[in-house]
Write a structure and sequence with these properties.
Chain A is an alpha+beta fold. Chain A has three helices and eleven strands. In chain A, strands 1-2-3-5-4 form a five-stranded mixed beta barrel. A five-stranded mixed barrel of chain A has the order 6-7-8-10-9. Chain B is 46% helix and 12% strand. The chains are: A alpha+beta, B alpha+beta. The structure holds FE2/S2 (inorganic) cluster.
Chain lengths: 253, 339
């Protein structure tokens, strides 16, 4: 049998003083874990360097919808639908596929063709995205005129490069460094890149990114999900702002 | 102490220990998820809760060693520390699986390929890929968890096993880098926890090391080759004093029923400090996990088979003199009986 002040794991008699001490340690341990758990959970959706607005839950329940409109293949597949009561100008809807993929587009589909697409509509702030599960095919509809690009001049803007899908609500939060690998995979897979600005630009906090030539950008993995400053021309197309950036000028903050 | 290997030789203390641990983890995860603030998916919440919980547990498990050195009342926490380690590794693995099943899923690439290609550096300090640090830390923790069983301890020998398990400090360093380049870039609340835990651990280890380092070391005197260990009256009945030698392993000199016996201070199990143990039921009993050895030959009582080195003692008047050359483990030495 062990002396009262000597603990032996296989002996049940370890003394009252030791028992009281261990009971105190156990209570402290439980209180510590509960307290720190509570503290850590207060920052469950990190806001990062820019304190970007914490992404709210999707504006509406995610329902399947069918949209008809004019498809623009560049810089990234986007559907432009006719103005309606909620959207007074040509309304843009970014397109993506299932999972971390861009939309599957029929190779015969011409830029500017009329299409009908069915998918799940994600919406956050000023930006809409349709997650299209099927291949996008042309329609014989009469074409809608292409949105006339309006240049808003050259800008230097601070913000974060996100994938348009998680940013529009597929994941919460769909931004920040811990989401970096996920954003990179979405971008590799062809999901349109969205620049979430630190403060609004011409009334918008989400800009579709493009290269200086207005085409898709090459590999964005190096800069994704980091606080960066990008420089380039901003162009309005319908209700969409396109930020034509030269990535060689990009600066990580 | 067991004669054959069983997955776990359960005792009441181990059951209570594990129950307390699991209750603490459950409380943490519940407090984190239930009162979480911010729009966040259940999956992302799970990733964060498990990751931050694993960090906290790893910090706590590393604090047990120095705490037990500073205050022996913490020794019972050390008794079942391996279960603490294995549970910590399980939570860390849960975090990794949750990441694989969320951030690395749904991609045209498989989750493991995705993990390799997705996170490339930015060329700046911000954006250093933090995931590889986490993977390396988890691999170390998995190796330690798998080899934590006594089978591996005896297969690898306590010395090698102990060296391998010091790898937990490398894992902790990697985890600190993982969170420093990851979560800490964005999460303020977690920053306090990481700073307090990491700095607290360093301070605790430095303080313990400083106290241990101040304990005097003894050298053999020429020409006898003997070390003056202590005075006869220095050793309390049923206890030992520890003689730290300048260039050899420390030795514990026990007194039992008035007679003196010297054995290795390092337990054959996990190198625990035998000299801080007691004589119980006529056997030296290790303060870490309760392994026992006979005073006269350093052998565990049958049916157990562990052995430790014994040493020869001489008495010169009131002075206890130690011959610092160890006898082969298990060698019989007649206990020294003062006149
Ligand atoms: S180290 Fe485990 S019993 Fe001694």
């Amino acid at each position: 049998m062990s002396p009262p002040d000597f603990f032996i794991g296989w002996d049940r008699n370890s003394g009252r003083a030791q028992f009281r001490f261990l009971a105190l340690v156990a209570a402290g341990f439980l209180a510590l874990l509960a307290g720190i758990g509570l503290l850590d959970g207060q920052d469950a959706a990190p806001r990062g360097l820019f304190h970007l607005a914490p992404p709210p839950p999707p504006d509406a329940p995610i329902d399947a919808v069918t949209l008809r409109g004019r498809v623009a293949l560049h810089p990234y597949p986007t559907l432009f639908v006719q103005p309606d009561a909620t959207h007074p100008s040509l309304h843009s809807v970014l397109l993506s596929g299932d999972g971390k993929r861009g939309p599957s587009i029929d190779p015969a589909l011409a830029d500017g063709a009329m299409v009908s697409v069915t998918g799940l509509k994600l919406r956050r702030g000023t930006i809409d995205m349709l997650v299209v599960g099927e291949e996008v095919h042309p329609l014989p509809d009469p074409p809608i005129a292409a949105p006339a690009p309006v240049s808003l001049g050259r800008w230097r803007v601070a913000g974060e490069i996100c994938d348009g899908k998680c940013q529009t609500g597929a994941m919460q939060p769909g931004q920040g460094l811990s989401h970096r690998a996920c954003a990179s995979l979405c971008l590799i897979g062809g999901v349109p890149p969205v620049f979430v600005t630190a403060s609004p630009v011409a009334g918008a906090s989400f800009l579709l990114l493009a290269g200086p030539d207005g085409r898709a950008l090459a590999d964005l993995r190096r800069l994704a999900a980091l606080p960066v400053v990008l420089e380039g021309e901003i162009e309005r197309r319908g209700d969409l702002l396109v930020f034509k950036v030269d990535l060689t000028q990009a600066r990580v903050l | 102490m067991s004669v054959k290997y069983v997955p776990v030789s359960w005792t009441t203390s181990k059951k209570l220990y594990d129950a307390g641990l699991i209750a603490g983890i459950a409380l943490y995860l519940l407090a984190f998820s239930h009162f979480a603030i911010g729009a966040v998916d259940d999956q992302a919440l799970r990733i964060r809760a498990l990751g931050s919980c694993a960090f906290l547990l790893l910090s706590l498990v590393l604090a047990i060693g120095p705490l037990a050195r500073l205050d022996r009342r913490f020794l019972p926490l050390l008794y079942n520390r391996r279960h603490f380690g294995v549970i910590t590794c399980t939570i860390a693995a849960g975090h990794a699986l949750a990441v694989l099943g969320w951030y690395f899923a749904f991609s045209p690439l498989g989750p493991y390929d995705a993990m390799l290609v997705a996170d490339i550096g930015s060329g700046h300090l911000r954006g250093v890929p933090f995931i590889p640090f986490g993977i390396a830390a988890l691999l170390i923790l998995l190796v330690l968890a798998v080899t934590s069983h006594d089978f591996w301890l005896s297969f690898l020998t306590p010395k090698l096993w102990k060296a391998l398990h010091l790898g937990v400090y490398a894992a902790y360093g990697l985890v600190v880098l993982h969170v420093a380049f990851g979560a800490l870039q964005a999460q303020r609340a977690f920053e306090i926890e990481v700073t307090v835990c990491a700095l607290g651990l360093v301070a605790l280890h430095l303080w313990t090391g400083f106290r241990e380092g101040r304990k005097p070391r003894m050298a053999a005197a020429a020409p006898s080759g003997l070390v003056h260990a202590c005075k006869l009256g220095d050793i309390a009945e049923g206890r030992a004093i520890v003689v730290r030698l300048t260039d050899a392993d420390p030795v514990a000199i026990f007194r039992h029923e008035g007679r003196l016996s010297a054995v290795s201070h390092l337990c054959a199990h996990q190198n625990g400090p035998l000299g801080e143990g007691r004589v119980i039921d006529g056997c030296i009993t290790c303060p870490w996990h309760g392994f026992q050895y006979r005073l006269e030959d350093g052998r565990a009582p049958p049916p157990f088979t562990e052995r430790i080195a014994t040493y020869r003692l001489h008495l010169t008047g009131d002075d206890v003199m130690l011959d610092p050359s160890p006898n082969p483990p298990g060698t019989y030495v007649q206990p020294l009986e003062p006149a």
